[in-house]
Amino acid sequence: MKKTLLFSSLLVAGTFLNAQDITAVTGITKGKIEFNDFRKIDLNNLNSSSILVSKSDNLNLISDAGKTCNCGKYIAAMTTNAAGEIFFIPMTQSRLMTVNTASKSGTFKEIEKSSLDTKNQGTYFARMTTASDGFIYALNNNGTELLKISASGNIQNLGSANGFIAEMKKMTNETQAFGGDMIADAFGNLYVISAAGNIFKINPNNDSSSFIGKIKGLPENYTVNGAAVTKDGNVVLATTSQNGIYILNFDTLEAKFAGNYDVPVYDLASPYLLKQNQLEDLTNSSYSLFPTIVKTSELNIVSKVNEATKLDITVWNLNHKMVYSNSVAVKSIGDFKVNLKGALQPGIYILKAVNQNGAEVINTKFTLVK
After folding, report:
1. Pairwise CA distance, residues 237 & 122, whole Å
2. Where do you find CATH 2.60.40.3080 in the chain?
3. Rounded Cα gap, residues 105 and 260, in angstroms
């Protein structure tokens, strides 16, 4: 009854709108990290999960050289790309795994110049996320390896995250920054949420870092093992322990109980970014693009003003090549459709809109998923 009442109140308050599927790595025994499956969790109905790939599928991933490798027993670093593929790094392997959930097959690549030591947990990769630039980032526990990974799986080892390491050393015990997960915002920043609930902000472009604070409202000894941004800009937290799932208000760092979950969760991923609404507000005060994560070929231009104009729409890929153009007549406050007519493949794009006076009124990234 407790879970039902809490979720009803969340729905009434508008915290969750529509189904919110979060990708998760889960196991069997609480308190242990032993991979069992990748699955989708519906935050509106924790009793409903869909299995994407399980251990029983006997994943054998193949390298470019034709070698095979099992998927790994211990997984705590996972994310997805715009096409829905799963990327992960087993804790005790210096290999990036890519899995196509439809075919239940995939590939792996060696992480060159990796300092992984199976006897040193500080070198384990435990955090991974997809950032606003379309790249995947992974960070090991002690901050000595930050990886930048393209959507196609090419790996760039950026070396030590010196700003993060400096923040770790300010703590009485550096292991308080170990484990947990990583999320990203719309402005290019990464956030490490450690297992102990400490949050660090990292800018991978200039190697700066800062300590944001410690999460409030979690039970004593709660370990944050997974974190993902929800559609409304909050953060869902999951654990391997008995304490269930919490929702974190990232502005106040207050966490509230959302519901129990029957299996341990080792990592989470979602297609959403922190502060997406703030970016849109800064980009344009009169027009915006909504949503920025789309599964169809239809976008919405939202007008906030009562004025008639024609907007010339162009869509650009991340290589700065225009891949679509059209125009839309905006008449008043409301939503106006832009139909891409299936012209684009899943991926990350930039939509630009210019009004009839030649002024750019929208310049916003969006992600087209299957």
Report:
1. 22
2. 278-368
3. 31
Q: Is the distance from CB of 294 to CB of 278 less than 8 angstroms?
A: no
- The tokens for 177 are 């920054």
Domain spanning 278-368: which CATH class is it, in words? Answer: mainly beta
Q: Which fold has domain 2-274?
A: Neuraminidase (2.120.10)
Q: Which long-range contacts (CB under 8 A, 24 or more apart) does 37-40 make?
A: 38/78, 38/86, 38/99, 38/101
The one-letter amino acid code at 1 reads M
| pTM, full prediction | 0.75
Residues 6+ apart with CB under 8 A from 58: none
Written as one letter, the residue type at 168 is M
Q: Could you tell me if 369 and 342 are in contact, meaning their C-beta atoms sit under 8 angstroms apart?
A: no
Burial group, residue 239, by CB count within 10 angstroms (0-12, 13-18, 19+): buried
pLDDT tens digit sequence for 345-369: 888 999 999 888 778 889 888 888 8
- Mapped onto helix, strand or coil, the DSSP state of residue 304 is coil
Q: What is the DSSP letter of 277?
A: H
Question: Does the structure show a pLDDT above 90 at 13?
Answer: no
Query: Is 139 within 8 Å of 118 (Cβ atoms)?
Result: no
What are the Cα distances from residue 260, in Å, to 50, 93, 180, 194? 17, 31, 19, 21
Supply the pLDDT for residue 293. 82
Burial class (CB in 10 A: 0-12, 13-18, 19+), 14: exposed
pLDDT tens for residues 304-317? 888 888 999 999 99
Show the tokens assigned to 322.
């225009």
Count other Cβ atoms within 10 Å, centred on residue 57.
15
Measuring CA to CA, how many Å separate 130 from each of 98, 108, 141, 181, 297? 14, 18, 18, 12, 22
Within the chain, all domains assigned CATH 2.120.10 are found at 2-274
